[in-house]
Amino acid sequence: MSVALEFVIAPEGFQLGQVLSGVPDMTFELERVVPTGQAVMPLVRATGDDHAALRRRAREDPTVESMVALERIDDRGLYRVEWAEPPADLTEAIAAFDGSVLEARGDDDWQFRVRFEDHDSLSAFYDDVRDRGIDLRVDRTYTLSEATRNGHRLDLTVAQREALVLALRRGYFATPREANLGDLAPELGITRQSLSDRIRRANEKVLQAALLSTDAVGHT
Question: Which of 107, 125, 143 is the last residue of a domain?
C-alpha cells in the first residue's frame, strides 16, 4: 500500500533550494522530478513578479547548466532546471526510490509531501538521505487511504484542497453561481489564473478517485 511522507527542509539542505533561495519575493512549487539517464531534472513552478531575477540567478549559479521556461502565464512560470553536474541530494534520492512528489512548496523553508510505493521504500529513502547528511524534519507519515479530520486527502495538495473548499463554501459551483474567480482569488492571495489552475487540478484528482478507482466501478 502506498504511503506518504511529509517533511520540512531548509533551502540550504538541497541544491535546488539553494538556487531558488537567492530570489526574494518569489514562491516555488516543485511539480515533479524527471529522471533522464544519470541526471534528475526538476520541474519548478515559480510565482511572483521578478522572473527576470530568477533567470539571472540561475545563469549566475555554477551548478545550473540552464533553466528552461516551459510556460509563462501572468505572474507564474514553469521551468525545467538542468544541472551542470547531477546533484547527489534530496531530489536524486526521491527519484532513486521511485518517490512521487505530491506537494513541494517553498520560499524560506520547503514543505514536502512525497508518496512511496510502500513503507520499505519510504524507510530506504529516509536512511539514504540521512547517509547523505541531509537534515530534514519529518512531520508525519500515513497511508493514502487513511482518513484525516478533514476527510480523505485524495492526493490533493494543501493548496488545491484549500482552493476547492473555498470554492465550495462560497458557492462557486452553485447554480446560479454565487461567487466567481475574481471574488475568491484575493482571499488566497493568488491570481485568477492560478486559482483556476488549482480548482481544475483538484477537480481532476477528485473525479479520478471517484470514477476511476476500482472500488468505485459499478456494473450495469
Answer: 143
CB 107 within 8 A of CB 28: yes
User: How far is the C-alpha of 74 from the C-alpha of 175, rounded, in Å?
Assistant: 29
Q: Does residue 40 carry a pLDDT above 80?
A: no
Helix spans in 50-118 (H):
51-60, 90-96
- Shared-domain flag, residues 83 and 177: no
Domain hosting residue 130, numbered range: 3-143
CA 127 from centroid of its chain's CA atoms: 22
What does each C-alpha distance from 185 to 51, 76, 152, 180 come to in angstroms? Answer: 21, 14, 25, 9
H/E stretch holding 23 reads none
Predicted TM-score (pTM) of the model is 0.65
d(CA 189, CA 186): 5
Helix axes 158-169, 181-188, angle to 10 degrees: 130
